[in-house]
Write a structure and sequence with these properties.
The structure holds three protein chains of three kinds.
Chain A: E1 3-10, E2 20-27, E3 32-36, H1 43-50, E4 58-63, E5 66-67, H2 73-79, E6 80-83, H3 95-100, H4 115-128, H5 143-155, E7 161-165, H6 173-188, E8 192-197, H7 200-206, E9 209-213, E10 219-223, H8 224-227, H9 230-237, E11 241-246, E12 251-256
Parallel strand pairs in A: 3-8, 3-9, 6-7, 7-8
Antiparallel strand pairs in A: 1-2, 1-4, 4-5, 9-10, 11-12
Helix pairs in contact in A: 4-5
Chain B: H1 2-31, H2 39-51, H3 59-93, H4 106-119, H5 124-148, H6 154-178, H7 184-193, H8 201-228, H9 232-237, H10 242-264, H11 270-282, H12 286-310, H13 318-341
Helix pairs in contact in B: 1-3, 1-12, 2-3, 3-8, 3-10, 3-11, 3-12, 4-5, 4-6, 4-7, 4-10, 5-6, 5-10, 8-10, 8-12, 11-12
Chain C: H1 5-24, E1 44-48, E2 54-58, E3 64-66, H2 71-77, E4 84-86, H3 92-97, H4 114-120, E5 124-128, H5 132-139, E6 145-148, H6 153-166, H7 170-191, E7 201-205, H8 218-225, E8 229-230, H9 246-252, E9 256-259, H10 269-274, H11 282-285, E10 289-291, H12 306-317, H13 324-339, H14 345-348
Parallel strand pairs in C: 3-4, 3-5, 5-6, 7-8, 7-9, 9-10
Antiparallel strand pairs in C: 1-2
Classes of the chains: A alpha/beta, B mainly alpha, C alpha/beta.
């Protein structure tokens, strides 16, 4: 078991309103969990708790069997790879150096990356097929390429699990599909993966588990086919959505009914 | 991996070239000046003195080479490299290419610290300590303002630096007003002006240790500065103790600025401009940028000071020359940055 | 979040090293890496300058360097003008007294160009006594430096004696001091019978309106020697030129307002005379706002010329006791005595 989350709740110290309450879920090796919810529901906050960047006000999180509160930042960082939603870089570091920064959990403070770290970074670039970008400034590559670079950075330490915060949000349609394909590939390699998205279609394309965080802060988790139904979508997104079986693809697609 | 290795090799070539250039400039600068000396005389003095032997030459010749030129050259190298290294550090750690020790108010704060120590007639050791804490206090104030108004825009940090510098200059005005015009005022004004002309070996020795230590720490932490420059959240998710890296590097950078101010007073623009030139040559990654920036700062300052002391009948305050180069450059920088500032 | 202890240790160690490095440093004046040039014992003597430093000087000083304006008139009056090898600025009067000044070099203005100084290698460097930094830096080259502070009359006389001794003109210095004292004595004797309440009140106003010369300044002595009362003497301030503001001056309502003759001034006598706000002042009504002469040799600047300063004030305030004719002959007598030359009124500009 990679993640074991038991009854966690969270609110900010400035505002006592609970962002989410009594959330429980568990995640195994190779599993994908898509967290759905409208904007501002607290999906990113939940991910931050899972990275221990912020701590829940109650409940417990176990990462690889250990209480996350008792782990140090480096230990967590080497187990959990994180792909942020977007990124406004101040300096145009080369893609290679950017990916190399992902080795930080393995490097001691006051030390610099060694040759083995550079080789690991290069392998990550190879795995994503972006070695041709190695010397490019990552301020000058496309959004899709930047997403690939960030994914490469998150796997350069070979963590157990990857957290994606809205990995498709800033991409064109073709690149969105590329990223989803990549996420599936990574889960096949054994990574436990959590993504947040507000597109139910993406959750269905990825399969596996899905969770819906509603505006009251309740989270329901189950297999994606079970959890995504028209009534729930109406509830969460406040829009009429139809789920249609597409026999040619042997899957269900989510389309709006009133357009 | 080939491209990565190639780039490393290129980087080494650049830095070695700069080291050689710096050595050449040191020699050149030792050999030129208003006091007429032959190459033979200078070489003799340098050679005999470094071997500890006794030779025969004019006592004044020795005073000029070892008492005037050598300390000035060393001071120019120390100050130029310190200022550009601290500039690169501030720019990296606050992920803002528009700032420098002077724009953060560090220089003004260090001057105030020094001035207070002078007013209290404390010894030079305390003047340095006060300069350091003055600088640190100023940078802390500058960083507080963007937090208060919850903005992390580049321009807000620059404006906040202007606010703090403005406040500092009125405090400075008050200190000067209360200073004894006969003795203290001239010394305080000297701190503000910046000049290499009275540098002595003694003042260099007194700041050598803090400068060397700070530079070492910054070089060692250069890779970590890159990570912090990605932003606090990302750096934390990579397992980096952001506030630790930030505190240590800001302390070291401030120590460098305060130490340079202790030897020669405030010299503007170097800490802003040189890191940018270095970035163009070496790339933005701090492990590469910092050594290049360090060497370029030393070379730049040495060239400017050598020109200043050899050309013309009277020396100009050094900030006039650095400002002449720095101010237009900052304008160009703003032009290049205009898209991101909006 | 927990971080390893080693990091905290490094942080502490760093701070400690930093503090040690500070306290371990030596101040610049403590270390003197430059060997002094050997000076034979018999050829030199020692004087204590006006900044309290003991200076060893050659017996027969042949070359003098200066980097600010004040020492020039003292050196010229001591008859050593030809020995000046470096000067910050000169004017027509100085070159008329001593033509060789026109060819003197320069070692900087205010701040000294040390290498140019080394090249010139003068026997002595005379500078502002408060600028210890410059004095020490030049001394480190092995060049004897004398600091002078002719701030008050007593100090002016002391400067004459000190430079007389240092430059080998003690006899001449004694003559000059004697002459100065006699003239001061003479000025005081003229007004000695006037009771305090009948004396004119006056102030000397500095480079900006409302900035006045305090009781500590030379200018205050000039007013008093000329038989006037310096109203600004009552001001309790550590500053030499406190800014009291125009209103305070209105309240004082002085009989005479003397203005310093400085190019840095932001106003002139005409501005005050035509300003309606100032029109009710006694000094303005009686046309007694006057700039202290002269353009060429300022009589209220530290130097021998100050004796003309108080004589001129005396003549302005009490013309019935001291006529213009008497004063004019005194001017000629002074320049003749001090520099062996007389100047026309036009030339000096008064």
């Amino acid at each position: 078991m990679i993640y074991e989350i038991k009854n966690i709740s969270f609110h900010y110290s400035s505002n006592k309103r609970l962002i989410f309450k009594n959330v429980s879920l568990s995640l195994k090796k190779g599993q994908i969990l898509s967290i759905l919810g409208p904007n501002g529901a607290g999906k990113t906050t939940l991910l931050s708790c899972m990275k221990n960047i912020i701590s829940p006000v109650s409940g417990e999180i176990f990462l690889c069997g250990k209480d996350i509160r008792k782990m140090n930042v480096k230990e967590i960082a080497s187990l959990v790879g994180y792909v942020p939603q977007s990124h406004t870089p101040a300096f145009g570091y080369s893609v290679f150096d950017f990916v190399l920064m992902g080795r930080a959990p393995k490097i001691m403070m006051y030390h610099k990356p060694k040759v083995e770290d550079e080789e690991a970074a290069w392998k990550a670039l190879e795995m994503l097929g972006i070695t041709h970008l190695a010397e490019k400034a990552y301020t000058e590559i496309s959004g899709g390429e930047m997403q690939q670079a960030m994914i490469a950075r998150s796997i350069v330490c070979h963590p157990k699990t990857l957290l994606f915060d809205e990995p498709t949000a800033h991409l064109d349609y073709g690149n969105q599909l590329n990223v989803l394909r990549l996420i599936k590939k990574l889960s096949n390699e054994g990574y436990a993966i959590v993504i947040t998205t507000h597109n139910p279609d993406h959750a269905m394309l990825l399969g596996g588990l899905a969770a819906i965080l509603d505006k009251e802060g309740n989270l329901s988790v189950d297999h994606v086919d079970v959890i995504i139904n028209e009534k729930l979508l109406k509830n969460v997104y406040n829009a009429d959505l139809k789920l249609i079986k597409v026999p040619e693809l042997s899957r269900t697609a989510c389309v709006p009914s009133d357009l | 991996m080939e491209v990565v290795k190639k780039r490393k090799a290129k980087q080494n070539v650049i830095n070695i070239a700069f080291v050689l250039l710096l050595l050449f400039l040191v020699m050149l600068s030792l050999y030129i000046g208003k006091y007429p000396l032959t190459i033979k005389e200078i070489s003799q003095i340098l050679l005999f003195k470094s071997l500890g032997k006794k030779g025969v030459w004019e006592p004044m010749a020795e005073n000029v080479v070892l008492g005037l030129r050598l300390p000035r050259i060393l001071a120019a190298i120390l100050v130029g490299s310190s200022l550009s290294l601290s500039g690169a550090t501030y720019q990296g750690i606050f992920k803002n290419p528009l700032i420098s020790p002077d724009f953060l108010g560090v220089s003004a704060g260090a001057c105030i610290g020094a001035a207070i120590a002078i007013i209290m007639s404390l010894s030079s050791t305390y003047i340095q300590l006060f300069a350091f804490f003055g600088g640190l206090l100023a940078v802390m104030l500058t960083l507080t303002i963007p937090k208060l108004i919850r903005s992390d825009s580049n321009i807000v940090l620059v404006l906040s630096g202007i606010v703090v510098s403005g406040a500092m200059s009125s405090i400075m005005g008050f200190i000067k007003y209360t200073a004894d015009p006969q003795k203290e005022l001239a010394t305080i004004t000297y701190w503000q002006m910046g000049s290499f002309s009275y540098v002595s070996m003694g003042s260099i020795y007194s700041v050598l240790l803090p400068i060397v230590l700070s530079c070492l720490v910054l070089f060692v932490l250069s890779w970590w500065i890159d990570i912090v420059s990605l932003g606090e959240k990302e750096a934390k998710s990579l397992g980096v103790n952001v506030s630790y890296v930030r505190n240590i590097t800001v302390i070291c950078a401030t120590l460098l600025t305060a130490s340079s101010i202790c030897i020669v007073g405030t010299i503007g623009w170097v800490g802003l401009v040189i890191p940018h030139f270095a970035r163009m040559l070496a790339g933005p990654e701090n492990p590469r940028l910092m050594p290049t920036s360090y060497l370029m700062g030393a070379i730049f300052m040495l060239i400017v000071d050598t020109i200043n002391r050899t050309l013309g009948s009277a020396e100009m305050p050094i900030s006039i020359l650095t400002g002449l180069i720095g101010a237009p450059f900052y304008g160009w920088l703003l032009y290049k940055q205009r898209m991101r500032l909006q | 979040m927990r971080y390893s202890k080693s990091k905290r240790l490094v942080a502490i160690a760093l701070t400690v090293i930093m503090l040690i490095s500070f306290t371990a440093c030596k101040s610049s004046s403590e270390i003197d890496s430059i060997p002094k040039s050997p000076i034979g014992e018999k050829d030199t003597f020692k004087v204590v300058d006006q900044s309290g430093r003991e200076v060893e000087i050659k017996n027969n000083v042949k070359s003098i360097a200066i980097a600010y304006g004040i020492p020039t008139n003292f050196i010229l009056a001591l008859g050593k003008g030809d020995n000046i090898v470096a000067i910050s600025s000169s004017n027509n009067m100085y070159t008329a007294i001593c033509p060789s000044l026109a060819h003197a070099g320069t070692v900087g203005k205010g701040r000294v160009d040390l290498e140019a100084m080394a090249k010139l290698n003068p026997d002595v460097f005379i500078h502002r006594g408060t600028d210890i930094e410059t004095l020490e830096s030049v001394s480190a080259l092995g060049i004897p430096t004398i600091g002078i502070s002719p701030e008050s009359t007593e100090d002016i006389l002391e400067t004459i004696r000190l430079l007389g001794k240092a430059l080998g003109a003690e006899q001449r210095a004694a003559e000059l001091v004697d002459y100065y004292n006699k003239k001061a004595e003479f000025a005081r004797s003229i007004t000695s019978s006037i009771p305090n309440e009948k004396r004119y009140t006056a102030i000397v106003m500095g480079s900006e309106i409302g900035k006045v010369s305090s009781g500590k300044m030379l200018q205050s002595y000039l007013i008093e020697t000329a038989g006037g009362i310096n109203l600004a003497k009552t001001i309790d301030s550590t500053e030499l030129w406190p800014v009291v503001g125009a209103e305070k001056i209105f309240q004082w309502n002085p009989d005479f307002i003397f203005l310093t003759n400085s190019s840095a001034s932001k106003y002139n006598a005409e501005d005050l005379m035509t300003d309606p706000a100032w029109s009710e002042l006694n000094a303005v009504k009686n046309n007694r706002v006057l700039m202290v002469p002269s353009d060429m040799d300022s009589w209220e600047f530290p130097g021998l010329g100050t004796l003309l300063g108080f004589l001129w004030m005396l003549q302005q305030m009490y013309p019935e006791l001291y006529s213009e004719e008497q004063f004019l002959s005194e001017v000629d007598a002074f320049y003749n005595m001090a520099y062996g030359i007389t100047f026309s009124r036009d030339f000096l500009g008064y």
